[in-house]
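[scheduler] slot 2 assigned
[scheduler] job type: sequence-to-structure, two independent chains
[scheduler] chain ordering preserved from manifest
[runner] begin chain α
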Amino acid sequence: MNILLPGWSSTGRALPASFRKVLLLGSLVLLAQVHQDSASRPTSDDEDKDQKSVSVSLSAHASGRWEPPRPANDTEASTSQMHDEVTLNHPQKQSNDDLQETDAELHDAKADAELHEMLAAVGKVDVATKEENAKVDSSVESLLERSMSEGESSSQHELQPDPKKVKKMVDAKRKVKVKGRVHTMEAVVDKKRTITNQSTAQMTARMAWQERVATETAADPSLHCSDDPSVKCKAYVSMFLRHWVDFSDLHERFTGDIWYIVKWTDERVHSIVPEGMSHVTMNKAIATKRLWIPDVDVSNRAVGGKDNLFYAVKVQRNGECMLVRRVITTVTANIDFTSYPFDRLALDVSLGSPNFFSSDLELAVGPDMADPNTPAVAASMFLHPHSFQLVDWSIRAYASKAPVHDSMKWGRIILTIQMDRVWWRVFQMTIVPQLFMIGVGYLVVWYPRTPAFISCKAGGLMVALLTMMSLKNSTIGKLPAGRAGSCWLEGFQDTAMYLIGIMLWLNVFCEIVYHKWGQPALAERMSFCLKCAYPALCGVCFFTCWYFVGTTFTSALDQDSMFWQWRGSIAKMQTINRFWLLAFFVIFAWYWHNESVTMQKHESKVRLAADDLSPKESEDQ
């Protein structure tokens, strides 16, 4: 191959071989450099767009104006990390505005740090790319030097460079540059995604934490009747007994259908009532979450003795609130059985709050309870043949005594129902059978004093005595065992049982006089005396029992009163009756024993007189 310089003819002198080799290699190097520059530039519009989007997103992220989309996988670790950072740097009581400004500053500082890290990573990639390019250039230069040295030594033939080898070296250098650029772009995109995920998770955690703080620090309308905690809540209570269900003397409790209404004022409820409505009615589940309710319930109810039939809260736009409840509940009562069955019952239904002291919630009697047209207890419930008769009712507010401190008091609304027991219904079941048995025992003295009627008289008295004991045990089983002292009915039954016992003992005494002592005339006289004295004894004992009717436990404890000195307790009644019975038996036995002795002496004198007259009569004959 011959190369001619410009202006030189083809017939002129050709260039030296070494010069031709250098010129050829320089052309190849220049061509390779042009290819490298063209390969390092963006070759399409898509690459320009990617580079522009990366640069714009990086600048927007650094300035804080970029808002990345929310990733699909927000982790709880980012949420807890953001919560811990905000909690450590800021107290919980600062305002939401300060928290937002502080979080924004932290977010911007963190974004700047991440941007610097990303740029440093890009710089490291560029340095590595430059080093690779320098290695390629050094390898090409070494190849040129070797070629030139070989050209000087062998000038006989032309140096023909391998185009494939040169092309391979140029392609390798271009690939290194392109690969470095691609790695740089991928690193930028990956870093952008990481920053996006972290920023989105942090923003979500910040918003959730701010909402929780706002919820915790906001005033809960269900905790107090007002936003001002120093305001004392006040509620007005009205109570009504609509149906009398059951009563138990043994368990000292009664069951009734009770309605009660609680009214209070809460000025915050205007937002609850929808526009265009004067009031709204809610059930318990909704009302307890949206407003404050004085949780009032029957405080002296039995365990498990309550059935909720109705619960509604009516809220008006002007702030007036009303709770209406209907319950069938079993209420425990403290009953004084001292004068049973002539007792007057005072049954209390107590309403109070199990969650508030009287210093937090003041309970007052509703003004509608003063209206006589709205009685709390209807008298029509206790008509014939009911076991009780309504006397009166009253309702009052009461503050219980403090067990430890004066602030620990409970407010109560107490409805007191006073009723008289219908005593003749108890008489029909207990006293009338006892009086009949006393009559059976009295008939014994009317039987003839012959051996044929001994078994009839003894059998009748034993049946009467066992019946008395059975009736007394029945009465004891109907009344509570833990009551204080005996009741009037127990004292009467005790007296009636002793009367039958006295009759049994006196009948045996008469039989002894008749059969063992051999004094039938005296036995007949004793029977005749019992026909008159026994009814008198029964009258005295019954009068004593009647005199103690109306004795209560309170009057029995008042030992300074004239009432106690004359009557006292039921135990005093029993003692007096036992004294009458014992005195009657002692006097009766002593008297007729003396009569028996007197009769024996008289009979002895008669026999002696008869014996003295018999010899004289024989002499006269």
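[runner] end chain α
[runner] begin chain β
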Amino acid sequence: MNKTLISLLLIILMPLSAYAACTDLGGGVWQTDGNEAADVAECIAAASTGNTINVIAGDGATAWAAPVSVTKAVKIIGPGKTNLTITWSGASAFNINTVDAWRISGFKFSTASSQTAIVISNGSGWRIDANDYTNTQSNSGLFANIDVTVSGDNAYGLIDNNTLYNARILMSNASLSSAGINSLWDDALDLGTANAVYIENNTFDDDGTFTKNDVDSNRGSKYVYRYNNNANGIMAHGLLTGYRASKTWEVYNNAFNSKSIKTWQAIYFRGGTGVIFRNDFTSEIDFNGSIEFDLERKTTCPDDYPDCTDTTTRRGACDGDHEWDGNTGSGDTAGYPCRDQIGRGLDSSNWADYSTRPVPSQDLTPAYIWGNIKDASAVTSVYVPSAGGDNLMIVANQDYYINGASFNGTSGVGSGLFTARPATCTTGVGYWGTDTNILYKCTATDTWSTYYQMYTCPHPLAGAGTCSSVAGRAGYEITEEAVFYDLTITKAGDGSGTVTSSPSGINCGVGCSYSFASGTEVTLTATPSGDYNTFDGWSGEGCSGTGTCVVTMSAAKNVTATFSQTTPDQFAVIVSYAGTGEGTTNPASGSHAYTVAAEVTITATEGANASFTGWSGTCGATGTGSAVFNMPANDCTAIATFADDPKYTLTVTYPGDGITADTDVGGIHCGEYNLDCSAQYYSGATVIVTSTCSTASVFSGDCTGADCSLSMTADKNVSLSCLGAKSTAQNQAGGMTAIYQSGGMTGQ
């Protein structure tokens, strides 16, 4: 066997892969051949949804010039945060756009400037874990940081087990000018559900000069901050420059130990609503207390405070003169409630367009605070600044409720065994059941109702474990890494509809299978399509009936949703004609019954010397072809319009001398006693002009010579004369012939 043939066989026997920098290890696992951005990108291109990409350490350091774009649900696993350091000069290190169920783990991200390590736009079920984010620049005036930016109206996932040094996590959505941004405030609050960004079991540290918050949010963001060790406080912005406020926050079981220059409180919230409980604050946090609620659009503005004096890019002061606010107060509280302020989390309706008036109101959804400790003493107050009137607009037992020294059900938040709650209560107050781990709200006089319960802890994406009442990472333990199982939806029946899930992942429709972490409680909702489909019910995994189906993932599971088609009603199409021309339709003019959603076709045929100019009417038919539309669920009209073809005028100049000129198609009989010398004819008609000349006719104008045949494409003019001195004119009506001579007429 020659060497050429051996080489050819070797090529054939090698794996057929176009990805030279990526090795297929089998079983859905790939390994990069280097640690460069291009190596990772090549493996992403080679991998399939659900695969794992292992990134090798190489020499332990790599510099990326452009972001790695994550375009599919893959797990990108580094060699460990102590084994590979990524620096980058592009807009970010990783960029993820509208992708679900991805993971980035096991890297160190290092920078000496303000850079974004990971950008996330939409998508759910993702995880960022076991990474190190370090900013080596130390200068409080430069605000150097790394942002893990979460952007989009459904960017829900988990950020856990990371170390951030001089770095922060920022949650931000679309700006005020973005279409649909207000729809974020028309959804449910979703407190205690998977529909939020979960930040848990992380360590935030700094060098004492870092002046960014460890976590920041705005623009409709929803986040849960739990079991973290925190060095520099967290923030939620209010309605401000070009964007609306944060929507919801849940902050519990965190250890706050400020090492910063103390320009921020541990919890500094300016908008939205939520819960704050069981956090531990140290004495180092002494800047205006541990928790502050603020109003960025002051009711009265300090000279150096632009957020309420600038009405161009900001909203202006909340002083009763701005239609975005509730404006139900009086005097110093005239603007109350201010839009998106503390204790307001939902619009009363979808404010689809900023030009819509009236502006939707915002329901009262108070914040609840209880069980927080500072140096072993209960935190029983929130700092609300008096400058600018904040303390008049953000009021205890109205916009927020907090535990006090004692509790009798009339104000604040109590805690204890559920059975020990007061029998009487004032609407709005809260009570935390220490045995049930549920916050109860007094929804009416002397009526306690479940209001809030913590979501599964640890988060199912992290795995199984325990979360105790101890604050910080000490109260959080993972005992088993997350396992994922497929939930598959099958649609049955002759109808149509969609099935969606919460947490998101199933949209069937399009995606009828999704992998959820073990222990995840998935709620399925079925929605029939249109007016003539119905949802008949669930089967499989213990689900039945037509309500929601709740499945707890402990293995691969299958659920069937059955939809049926109903018999639709019939309505009338009323066909009629319009215009000056003649024509017909099929079906003809009149009323015709059709079944809803059936395809209706109506054709138009133009008559002689007429043109069909188009359809109109409430059925929605347009154009000059056949009318084709789906029958609506109501009577409707289809109007066919016909127009006469254009006409042109033929004029014959009276020849005199007793001569008569006629046309073969009528209209002109031009003589001494019959002066019908002009007539109109349809465009394109052929008209022949004759005469009673006894000798040869002589035509001029638009005809020349002895004969005259005209095509009417425009107005025409013809003159007639005869050769010789006399001519005969015939009276076609009476059959009389007269000979005209010089000096008189001789009858024959």
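[runner] end chain β
[qc] chain β: Residues 3-13 form the longest helix (11 residues).
[scheduler] slot 2 released
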